Amino acid sequence: MSIQADKIFINLPVKDLKKSVTFFNEVGFGFNSQFSDENAACMVISGHIFVMLLSEPYFKNFTQKKVADASKSTEVILAISAESREKVDEIVYKALSSGGKISNDPQDHGFMYAWSFQDVDGHLWEVIYMDESAVNQG
Is 19 exposed, middle or buried (0-12, 13-18, 19+ CB in 10 A)? Predict the structure, then answer.
């Protein structure tokens, strides 16, 4: 039997929690204040996907390993879906105007369109639109 989790909570270390919350608010994401305080902010991606932005000192409580500096190395690329090509561009442009940086140029594969940015800590985010009618469901 395979595991079928109902929700995902991504824990992401950030250098300046207030700056990160401001950035993601400007991009268009909301936050759940019930799970946010001076150490953490619960960013809502969808009803089943959440990113816990954790101040680096607080994040260190959850691991014995060294915390990677996302401005210098990459451990993960966070990919999220968008409802259209235009929405992909809108999200990335908002990220850029809010202090983010381009990660890669837009990629147009016909049935799939993606563009990526770095947030204020250097974490990589890829925004993807996929025309599911063009994908073989076999």
Answer: middle
